[in-house]
What does this fold into?
Amino acid sequence: MTDASVPQDFAALRTLIVERAADFPRRLTQVATYALENPDDIAFGTVATIAQAAEVQPSTLVRFAQSLGYQGFSELQEVFQSRLRDRVLNYDERLEQLREHTRNSGKSGLIFDGFAGAAEQSLATLREKLDPEQLRSAADMLARADTIYLIGLRRSFPISTYMAYAFGKLGIRYVLVDALGGLAAEDTSFATPRDVVLAVTFTPYASETVSLSQKLSGRGVPVLAITDSPFSPLASIAQTWFEVQEANFEGFRSMAATLTLAMTLTVATAERRASLARDK
It folds into this structure.
């Protein structure tokens, strides 16, 4: 029987994993990272498939569960299932209904339904996790910055580019760090502690985004991050960071939730700047 003191809900379990992260040996850290980034797979996978995906031995999953106070992996898995079961099953049912309705429309219709469903799932997860107070604080942080440095490379580049477009339209000073011509270091060379870095990156984490953010943080420039895990290299250097986990369809991840958060931050920053100007 599981000790009643161990987490029985996903929120408490996630908090415990993050608190214990620094004490985990390398293989358990590997499992912890995979578990927080792929909660659906942990909830409904088998020990064999999860171990293979996390690139560990099945026995490592058992050790991970026991290190958190559970008797075995199945008891840990029940916590993931209790949070995800209803939401995922409802999603699957809706997707299956869509498939029935579009069965005669060909493969393209199913692909659209798959991506639409992934986007809906991503947004639902973000809505559930997002802390309004953290959002308010982040908007205030950006609003008070002299210049906002936007760093988002590789698949995050569309996010930083669209934020640059919106900031420009709203009259907010920004620098889009696009690394064109290898000039990323020069693009950020004038950043000071009066500015803010807004960095966006997801697994496997764009190395230049991480490197630039770490260097700027070391110079005292505040960092605000959008990433996908407490084990992200940005989480440890950011003054505040938002966790966004995008669902995937056939291995392709939606960017719907990330773009929604990015535009929320952009518009909220403009509104906060206007409020600060009125108060002067």
